[in-house]
């Protein structure tokens, strides 16, 4: 028997697929090209093969969350499908890295944000009864872990004068990059049915508005920032879209900036930039995203190794991170993760 949460999870996934994908022009052939399916299949096999015995990737909760989301994005059944064992191991690793008292998922707010988003995408779709099956001791449910993670993020925000986040939960300053990661986790949790205070949403929106210039450029930390960044403008466009604040002048500004720079090469933090650019374009300009994602898929397929890894020139961290982020940048073609709903 399926639980009510499992049924709701299936409905969420179905709705997330139907809304955006119905717009695709199926008369031109299969909606998912063969090159894309091959890219994903090889990439997921690589991630499965690099997973540690404790279920994590690179002993990092954030990278583990990224890999779990990539595994979910292809549409394989997370409970009995090809990668279900890897999904369950990744979720357990995230929960095991969470502080049971504070809800903080170590080791920083970036990690906390990506791990929280992964938990939100798993909530209702991954059966908790299978998650801890065969283990000596059952850990927290996904719902319990997600609620704790939300509480940690909200408490951290309340103590921050910018009503946003930096590197640690007790940080007193903020930046738009870390704040975007945590905010997407909160929005994912809210979409999954977890209570997130309106004041938390409003506070982060106000922060992003304050950090955005009239030309759509978004500062990093403090006015003056680090100059133009497709990644930061993408983050701002994405969070305002998912938060349903597209009526703001700030959204119009970042939307225009992305439309003018939709194909500007990412020279630094490339994997990170393309991860956010893909989601932002998907939300703000669907036709432009269609062209971009075709080109992105070809680029990724050209550099993918025989082992399935996807090295991204100019990207930070290791191949696991780069592969996971690359797959997620292409994952919108499947339109399956609930956070991608348009």
In short:
This protein has 342 residues and is an all-alpha fold.
Description:
The structure is a single chain. The protein is mainly alpha-helical and 342 residues long. 57% of the residues lie in helices and 0% in strands. It has a single domain (4-333), classed as Glycosyltransferase, CATH 1.50.10.20.
What best-fitting shape do the alpha-carbon axes yield?
A: globular
Q: What is the number of independent domains? A: 1
Instruction: Extract low-pLDDT stretches.
Output: 1-29
Biggest sheet descriptor: none
CATH-scheme architecture: Alpha/alpha barrel
Q: Kindly estimate the percentage of residues that lie in beta strands according to DSSP.
A: under 5%
Structural class: mainly alpha
Given this structure, which CATH class is correct?
Mainly Alpha
According to CATH, the fold-level topology is Glycosyltransferase
- Report helical residue fraction: 55-70%
Write the layout of secondary structure elements.
Layout: H1 4-21, H2 34-50, H3 61-73, H4 84-96, H5 109-122, H6 128-131, H7 142-158, H8 176-191, H9 198-210, H10 230-242, H11 249-260, H12 270-284, H13 286-303, H14 319-330
Helix pairs in contact: 2-13, 2-14, 3-4, 3-5, 3-14, 5-7, 5-8, 7-8, 8-9, 8-10, 10-11, 10-12, 12-13, 12-14
């Amino acid at each position: 028997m399926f639980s009510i949460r499992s049924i709701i999870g299936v409905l969420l996934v179905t709705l997330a697929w139907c809304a955006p994908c119905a717009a695709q022009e199926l008369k031109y052939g299969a909606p998912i090209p063969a090159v894309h399916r091959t890219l994903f299949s090889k990439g997921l096999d690589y991630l499965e093969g690099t997973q540690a015995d404790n279920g994590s990737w690179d002993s990092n909760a954030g990278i583990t969350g990224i890999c779990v989301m990539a595994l979910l994005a292809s549409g394989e059944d997370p409970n009995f499908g090809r990668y279900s064992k890897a999904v369950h191991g990744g979720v357990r690793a995230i929960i095991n890295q969470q502080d049971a008292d504070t809800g903080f998922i170590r080791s920083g707010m970036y990690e906390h944000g990506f791990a929280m988003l992964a938990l939100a995408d798993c909530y209702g779709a991954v059966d908790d009864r299978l998650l801890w099956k065969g283990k000596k001791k059952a850990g927290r449910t996904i719902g319990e872990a997600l609620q704790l993670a939300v509480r940690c993020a909200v408490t951290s925000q309340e103590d921050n004068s910018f009503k946003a986040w930096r590197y640690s939960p007790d940080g007193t300053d903020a930046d738009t990059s870390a704040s975007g990661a945590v905010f997407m986790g909160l929005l994912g949790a809210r979409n999954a049915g977890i209570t997130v205070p309106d004041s938390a949403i409003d506070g982060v929106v106000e922060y992003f508005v304050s950090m955005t210039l009239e030309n759509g450029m978004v500062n990093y930390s403090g006015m003056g920032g680090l100059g133009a960044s497709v990644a930061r403008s993408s983050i701002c466009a994405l969070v305002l879209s998912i938060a349903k604040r597209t009526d703001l002048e700030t959204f119009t500004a970042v939307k225009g900036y992305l439309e003018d720079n939709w194909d500007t090469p990412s020279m630094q933090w490339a994997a990170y930039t393309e991860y956010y650019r893909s989601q932002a374009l998907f939300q703000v300009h669907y036709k432009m995203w269609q062209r971009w994602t075709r080109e992105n898929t070809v680029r990724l397929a050209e550099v993918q190794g025989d082992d399935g890894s996807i090295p991204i020139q100019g990207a930070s961290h290791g191949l696991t991170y780069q592969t996971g982020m690359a797959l997620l940048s292409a994952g919108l073609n499947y339109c399956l993760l609930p956070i991608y709903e348009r």
